[in-house]
Structures are given as structure tokens and as C-alpha cells.
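Re: that backbone. C-alpha cells:
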């Protein structure tokens, strides 16, 4: 088993302008954001399993009300990484999230958790993906 512990920092919007509606129904935004010291702790584990024939995903959290299935951004990020880079691999991606960032507060807690999973798997799997 390989693992990496990461901080998933919250952000605040210092400025947010709605520029207009896009054809897909979303809005075009211009934002100025600042990272805060407040962060979730995210542990990403790769548990290799020679008996499995695919990559499974598990998400665990310290908050009972946070979904641990496909509704969770960290889970979705792990699935995307498995689909894109997990060909021929067998095992489980286990993500443990210790939430400190308030949920649904506009602080990018869920998005940050998803980004932490991508970053963690990039390191654990030695993918060499750029962070830019």
C-alpha cells in the first residue's frame, strides 16, 4: 500500500463578477480568489490487489452527511483518474477526508478535495502530470 497525506485548502472570493450566461446555461464568471489557512486533511491510498481485475474507489469522511459515492467530488476525481490512467491496474483507491472546511459555504471544500485526489494519484502512480 502506498499513501500520501495532503492539505486541501479553502478559498475565499475577494471579487466575483457575473459576466453573462453561456449557451450551456452556466454563467461566465470573473473571480479574484485567495487561499486560506483553513484546510481539510485528505489521505489518498493506493492498495494494489493482484486478485482484482479493475480499480475500485472508496471514500470515507468524518462527517456523516457528506456522500461517499459518486456525488462526492473526490470520488468522481478518483474515478476519472482510474478511467484515464488505470488501464491494466488492479486495486483500490481509498480516500479519507477529515473535513474542517464548512460544506456548501462557497469555500471550494469539495472541489479542493477532488483536486487533492488528482494530485495524490499523480504522485502515487508516478504519472508526472503538470500542475499547470
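Recovered sequence:
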Amino acid at each position: 500500500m502506498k499513501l500520501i497525506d495532503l492539505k486541501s485548502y479553502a478559498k475565499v472570493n475577494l471579487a466575483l463578477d457575473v459576466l453573462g450566461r453561456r449557451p450551456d446555461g452556466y454563467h461566465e464568471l470573473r473571480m479574484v480568489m485567495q487561499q486560506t489557512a483553513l484546510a481539510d486533511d485528505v489521505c489518498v491510498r493506493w492498495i494494489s490487489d493482484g486478485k482484482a481485475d479493475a480499480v475500485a474507489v472508496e471514500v470515507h469522511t468524518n462527517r456523516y452527511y457528506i456522500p461517499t459515492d459518486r456525488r462526492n467530488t473526490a470520488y468522481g476525481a478518483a474515478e476519472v483518474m482510474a478511467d484515464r490512467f488505470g488501464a491494466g491496474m488492479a486495486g483500490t483507491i481509498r480516500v479519507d477526508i477529515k473535513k474542517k472546511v464548512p460544506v456548501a459555504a462557497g469555500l471550494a471544500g469539495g472541489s479542493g478535495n477532488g483536486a487533492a485526489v488528482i494530485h495524490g494519484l499523480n504522485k502515487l502512480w508516478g504519472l508526472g502530470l503538470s500542475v499547470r
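The first helix runs from residue 73 to 85. The radius of gyration is 16 Å.
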